[in-house]
Amino acid sequence: MDNEKETKKKLLECAMKEFSEKGYMKASIRNICKEAGVTTGALYFFFKDKEDLFGNLVADTLYGLNNIIERHFIEEAIATEALSGGDMSIAALAAAQGFDDDMAIAREVIRYLFKHKEVIELLLTKAQGSCYENLPDQMVDKVEVHYTQMYIAMKGYKSKKELTKEDKFIIHWMSHDQIDIFIHIATHCKNAKEGEKQMENMMAYMIGGWYGVINNK
Amino acid sequence: MDNEKETKKKLLECAMKEFSEKGYMKASIRNICKEAGVTTGALYFFFKDKEDLFGNLVADTLYGLNNIIERHFIEEAIATEALSGGDMSIAALAAAQGFDDDMAIAREVIRYLFKHKEVIELLLTKAQGSCYENLPDQMVDKVEVHYTQMYIAMKGYKSKKELTKEDKFIIHWMSHDQIDIFIHIATHCKNAKEGEKQMENMMAYMIGGWYGVINNK
Amino acid sequence: MDNEKETKKKLLECAMKEFSEKGYMKASIRNICKEAGVTTGALYFFFKDKEDLFGNLVADTLYGLNNIIERHFIEEAIATEALSGGDMSIAALAAAQGFDDDMAIAREVIRYLFKHKEVIELLLTKAQGSCYENLPDQMVDKVEVHYTQMYIAMKGYKSKKELTKEDKFIIHWMSHDQIDIFIHIATHCKNAKEGEKQMENMMAYMIGGWYGVINNK
Amino acid sequence: MDNEKETKKKLLECAMKEFSEKGYMKASIRNICKEAGVTTGALYFFFKDKEDLFGNLVADTLYGLNNIIERHFIEEAIATEALSGGDMSIAALAAAQGFDDDMAIAREVIRYLFKHKEVIELLLTKAQGSCYENLPDQMVDKVEVHYTQMYIAMKGYKSKKELTKEDKFIIHWMSHDQIDIFIHIATHCKNAKEGEKQMENMMAYMIGGWYGVINNK
DNA sequence: GATGAATGAGTGTTCATTCAT
DNA sequence: AATGAATGAACACTCATTCAT
């Protein structure tokens, strides 16, 4: 059983290397197998196809990441729900609170990103051509739900219906930017400690940005 | 003369379609030719190779874009030079001025982006595998030079040497974000008018972000 | 096991036929595969590329041939070393001895050439465009080292330094001619027996030629 | 008229360069035209096809060479005819005379070879794939007719019928070698002067070889 | 669990040549 | 005399995948 899994492990290692070096599309199954010292047939015993192989590399990490984000959003949703519709000063306060929470969760995310740095980089920068190529967009969508709530609260809107086209656009952008911040950190910092450090400035940037938007016009 | 170039035009049209649908790497020369109703040999009469074909699609647009940016940076450099090393209130004022200029140039860029929307999208989202795949990074680099000046001025630094590692990191991020704003607009708005409209909020976001960073800690 | 390798064998057979008929350059991989009744992919399972396919056809034979020659040259070197610098009559005697040895080795070479006639012809007359195209020249170089020694001995020179430009030229020619004799036999005789028979006259020619050169002027 | 021929001239120059660098087979018509600054259509106005282009490069030189050789052989034939069937001492004398003549003609040939060195090298070393690839063999055939007469004379045979299989084989070889000597000189010497100089040793080699053969057994 | 063998469709690219204008 | 355009077949090679054993 140890022996059996060794091949699979080797295959995964070599796949990791190949995908990291060449990206999903240019990676060659044959190369991976050659490097692993097995035939292509062996690979197809363990994995359904190229996509499945890539999936095996990233699935766990992705699952964990989704978990963190979702868990956070549930908590957040409860908190934000409470204040939606309240007066603006409270909302602002709550927003500040929201940013504090965000900072806390951001730290957790960053720690997670660096714990799985290799895989995360694979997912974020080498997945083009696979079914994961839209991952950042999917995460943006999740953040967007949350940010929409927060935006409504800060703007003092009574309901979603008050959101203009411009509101929606800038919410989407800020959601996108939030994800981009994580990607930037994951790909530009060398460890969690540095990531957390740089995060502070970036959060200042983002919060400044939010207020800039909220107070605009 | 109009008649002669019909094949080349057809080829370029079909190439545009193929590259747009599949991206540079997955696009098939054969497919393009089949669609255009000519043999592959015909394509190779007009274009040196796949890269050259792609280049013919994007070169002019890219050249024009570079021109706009470079011209802007030269003007900007002159303006920023003047205030580097001055006291902070003036610097802040000048920065505000800088942002106004930025807004003006942004409008010009946006109008250009939408004038060549199709090609711009090709360049920004479908070039992976070609020699243009690093275009956004290259533009970030250019912006970064300019933003470094502005950052120094706003921070009241006497010289580049005062920049910490964290300063440099956040400057790079903000440069990256500036380019990302343009990409976002180009890919999410349907015309220049809408783009310019959304730009206002995004500039508010960015300026808010800058002040958030400058006043941080 | 015999059954498995049938495809490879078929491929090699057909490759042999194609290369022999058309030469390395004009030979078509597709044709070889079509003739063998397999797809081109199958060929590339067994062979790295065109050159490797050709190599598989000739490598063993070439290795064996090199072995014979090198072994001979080592023995010869020892013999020639002994007389270098001695007086001319002894040298001449030794040279005669050298020619006798040459005749012996020639017989061995010829037997080998005919044992692998098909491949030898491939190597000597159909390799243009492959990495083996300079094989005759390489063999000439080897012979030349040996012949230089012999020439020095027969001329009664004390050292290599006494060799004039003309000496070197004629040594190179005679080396070339020696190789050419083997090629001529391999391509003009139908079996080893006939080859050995014709060899006698050719050796008489060559030895006569040597003395003609040595006694010239 | 001057203007018209300029294109053809340019084409021939570039063809010369291309064929010399890559050999007949690997030479590219397109390349030649590109280098000459004309379209492929232009080339096909002047030349029927690739072979014709190559032919235009070498035809004159080849014609001249054939002339020299044929003229020589006619003279020689008359001389040799006379002594065929005579006694051996006279034959030997005549043979010596033959070699003298050979030497004279060789000098003429060499001068011619170097006068057209470029083309000659093309013909002798770069023609593989064209209709001239067997040129050396054709010249060997011509020499062989002549050498057969000389051999008969030197051997004291009464007629061609006395020639054994071995006789014929060695005659063919010596014919081949004679041509090879010219090729060797043309490709290894840098001018006619050096060629003639080296020729002396080579003739000594060849004559020595002939006597070695004649006196063998 | 894994091999060895093979497929079939595909890749981008080059070739000598043709021909209407 | 020469162009610009186009053909059609060919090139060596790579791909992810399959499957009997």
In short:
Chain A is mainly α. In chain A, 82% of the residues lie in helices and 0% in strands.
Explain the overall architecture.
The structure is a homotetramer of 217-residue chains. Chain A has 217 residues and is mostly helical. Chain A has nine helices and no strands. Chain A has helices at 2-26, 29-36, 40-46, 50-83, 88-115, 117-125, 135-155, 165-188, 192-214. The longest helix of chain A is centred in the first third of the chain and has 34 residues, at 50-83. Chain A is elongated. The model of chain A has no long low-confidence stretch (mean pLDDT 89). Chains in contact: A-B, C-D. Chain A binds chain B through residues 23, 25-26, 128-129, 166, 169-170, 172-174, 176-177, 180-181, 184, 188, 197-198, 200-202, 204-213, 215-217, and chain B through 23, 25-26, 128-129, 166, 169-170, 172-174, 176-177, 180-181, 184, 188, 197-198, 200-202, 204-213, 215-217. The structure holds a DNA duplex (21 and 21 nucleotides).
What is the number of beta strands of chain A?
A: 0
Radius of gyration of chain A: 21 Å
Quick one: overall form of chain A? elongated
Biggest protein-protein contact in the assembly: A-B, 35 and 35 residues
Distance between the termini of chain A: 66 Å
Quote the average pLDDT of chain A: 89
* Helix content percent band of chain A: over 70%
Q: Mind summarizing the main beta sheet of chain A? A: none
What is the percentage of strand-forming residues of chain A? Answer: under 5%
Structural class by SSE content of chain A: mainly alpha
The DSSP helix count of chain A reads: 9
**Poorly predicted regions of chain A:** none
| SSE order of chain A, one letter for each helix or strand | HHHHHHHHH
- Give the oligomeric state: homotetramer
